[in-house]
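Minimal example, chain plus 6-aminohexanamide.
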Amino acid sequence: MIPSPTPPGLRGYRMPAEWAPQSQVWMLWPERPDNWRLGAKPAQQAFVEVARAISRFTPVTLGVSAQQYRHARTCFGMDANVRVVELSSNDAWMRDVGPTFVRHGESGGLLGIDWQFNAWGGLHSGLYFPWDRDDEVADKIVSLTGTPGQRADFVLEGGAIHVDGEGTVLTTEECLLHPNRNPQLSKADIERRLCDWLGAEKVLWIPEGIFEDETDGHIDNMACFIRPGEIALAWTDDESDPQYARSQAALAALQGQTDACGRLLTVHKLPLPGPLYMTAEEAAGVDPDSSGMSRAAGDRLAGSYINFLISNGGIIMPAFDDPMDTVACACVQEWFPEHEVVMVPGREILLGGGNIHCITQQQP
Ligand code: KQY
């Protein structure tokens, strides 16, 4: 990847909204036994279901290690809309390690941004070491797709941002201002970089993400745009839940705000599942390791329906075998009347620390 001093947003590129047309969706294959229980077998099944659901709307390319290639290939059988390629990584969070694609306003050409990746916090508070394979994934994908790429000059994960495609970025202070990402940059420095790299004019900040989210509060588990000027926000009315104050603070931060085009924001509440906790059986299935990931019985899980993927005519959304599943599905279906909402079991993915949006990256 050839470094260019001028960020893509200053050269006419902009990140499209997730509801813009997509040519494919990228995923990775879960394998590491210190994150995924039972040697990642249940997680692999969950990833297969996610890939199959997406592939009804959009072709999927799945990156797999050499060791697991044959197995993953077999899992998809003759499924013509899922392509399996050998691509090494340290784990399976394509949203965070894959390229963020931006499109040129005049030529329509794509460029893949290769953010610096430090495993959600680097050596002192990151989730694992090494992360060198993860940090190469974006460059390998732009090479495979034949699009130009550009290496960013700061640390960011794709799950830490959402855009409306019309100049507005949504993010959390908890993550982007955490000293474990870019301690040398001020809030103003980070805003400038987000706008310059994503082709945006305005950054909307909410204070925190989901309680106990090990990414330090990624936005993609907490809130997202559902169309320009409208945001869905993870919500609980339970005042005794530590999530309550977080959701309230986010609502307060967004209400009365305008986006880059001057629209007054509308915020829609999306109920949270649970609260959900890791069971003793689930925790026992994870191989102990020296990584920074806590996998103990009774751990609060950062479950959220916000972690869905919009892909062409489909919305692929996690289900948690929870009474709120049907309520959340109905909300999202109402907000997206032209889309088909497909719920896929999300608990096994949640046990690894994220969900469907975190394991996918769309290519416009
Ligand atoms: O939520 C994400 N975007 C990534 C979650 C990483 C969890 C690592 N165990």
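Residues 35, 93, 95-96, 127, 159, 214-215, 218, 293, 352-354, 358 surround 6-aminohexanamide (CB under 6 Å). DSSP finds eleven helices and 17 strands in the chain.
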